[in-house]
Write a structure and sequence with these properties.
The complex is a heterodimer of chains A (273) and B (101). Among the domains of chain A are: 104 residues, Beta Barrel (OB fold (Dihydrolipoamide Acetyltransferase, E2P)), CATH 2.40.50.140; 63 residues, Winged helix-like DNA-binding domain superfamily/Winged helix DNA-binding domain (Arc Repressor Mutant, subunit A). Chain A has ten helices and twelve strands. Chain A is elongated and about 75 Å long. Chain B has 101 residues and is mainly β. Chain B has a single domain, classed as OB fold (Dihydrolipoamide Acetyltransferase, E2P) (Beta Barrel). Chain B is globular. Chain B starts with 7 loop residues before the first strand and ends with a helix. Classes of the chains: A alpha+beta (273), B mainly beta (101). At the A-B interface, helix 3, strand 7 and strand 9 of A face strand 1 and strand 6 of B.
Chain lengths: 273, 101
């Protein structure tokens, strides 16, 4: 067994990243505590997600409505600052970098730290600390990645946990305010498309909304907007890999809604309101 | 903490969207020469990576660098990803898993 992350049972059971399951397995917790308290989750995150954490909840920091206590990061070490009592690693995972500090109390800590070199990919377990609005990771464990499939696996796990937690909160992630009504229609289309996929029900109207917004997004690309005559329907069909007759129907519908207009024969442009 | 200079993960098909920017990609090496390496991206497109590859070079390598055009990257950082990246299932003998006890 190389690492406990590859043991499917250990990764997905117990005090993993599913806060509701963790609270169910800990019946001794006081009932007055909030829904997620006492469930010390270990959450896989990217550095960008660390930056997006909001204040609130029991520990003071939360993401997707779940209190953040312990986190897992996988990234490349780009800098090491080795002091007597601690060692600080700058870990870069492609979405940004964060400083991870490991305190050295015993010989086993210094052995662990000496094994890490600049340029290595590492897996970091730690606790998020916020010092004067600067976020750092107080590291419990940092070890080199030997099987590089771990990197892809970590990102997939981050995506899965994020989608799971946002679904738990009711299926809608917060979206930036949109004033343009056609943009609002697009955002709505994607939202309902995603939540329907998760609930396992396929409502064809919602799916149509998703495809309509794909076509509209294609016509709103700078290249499409810049062209005088717009884009022809067979180019749209080819680029989006959707059958031509379906594209024609969608474009006719969008034109009837006033979102696109025809320029020359079979060429469409987005109505830049 | 800094998220101002992210490197996007790209394959051959996405490279054209990030020309001039920092990208990272894993390629399967098909040919290695002085000053450049030719390889296949995850979506089976040929990419040229310029720079000095590490010696020895494994079958799979991750490169971090600047995208020059839609099929070439000027690499700054090379990381050997071994010879069995993403290949774990092909190595298992699936018949062993389904044999009756």
């Amino acid at each position: 067994m190389q690492a406990n992350e590859f043991d499917g049972n250990a990764a997905f059971s117990g005090g993993g990243f599913m806060p509701s399951q963790a609270t169910q397995t800990a019946p001794g917790r006081p009932s007055s505590s909030s829904k997620n308290s006492g469930a010390r989750c270990l959450i896989p995150l990217t550095v960008k997600q660390l930056k997006d954490l909001s204040r609130g909840g029991e520990s003071g920091i939360s993401i997707d409505g779940v209190d953040v206590n312990n986190i897992v990061l996988v990234g490349r070490v780009s800098k090491i600052d080795n002091a007597v009592s601690d060692c600080t690693f700058r870990v870069d995972d492609g979405t940004g970098w964060v400083e991870c500090t490991k305190w050295i109390h015993e010989h086993v800590d210094s052995v662990e730290v000496d094994a890490i070199l600049v340029g290595m990919y590492v897996r970091v377990y730690g606790q998020l600390k916020s010092i004067q609005s600067r976020r750092t990771v107080h590291t419990f464990s940092i070890r080199p990645v030997t099987d590089f499939n771990e990197i892809a696996y970590h990102f997939i796990e981050c995506i899965y946990v994020h989608l799971y937690n946002t679904k738990m909160q009711g299926g809608m992630t917060t979206q930036p305010q949109v004033t343009n009504s056609s943009l609002g229609y697009l955002v709505q289309g994607y939202q309902t498309n995603l939540s329907n996929q998760f609930s396992g029900q396929y409502n064809t109207d919602e799916l149509n909304l998703g495809v309509n917004s794909l076509v509209l997004n294609y016509l709103r690309r700078p290249a499409s907007l810049a062209s005088e005559t717009g884009v022809s329907s067979d180019v749209v069909a080819r680029e989006l890999n959707i059958p031509l007759d379906k594209i024609r129907k969608i474009l006719d519908y969008l034109a009837s809604e006033g979102l696109v207009y025809t320029t020359t024969d079979d060429h469409y442009k987005f109505t830049d309101a | 903490m800094d998220t101002t200079s992210p490197t996007a993960f790209v394959n051959g098909g996405l490279l054209h969207m990030h020309v001039g920017r920092k990208v990272r990609a894993v390629i399967q090496v098909t040919r290695s020469d002085v000053g450049f390496v030719m390889g296949k991206s995850a979506d089976d497109r040929q990419l040229v990576v310029k720079g000095s590859p590490p010696v020895p070079l494994t079958s799979y390598v991750e490169v971090i660098g600047v995208a020059e055009n839609d099929n070439s990257i000027r690499a700054e950082i090379w990381t050997n990803f071994g010879d069995s990246f993403g290949m774990s299932y092909s190595r298992l003998n699936l018949l062993d898993l389904f044999e009756p006890c």
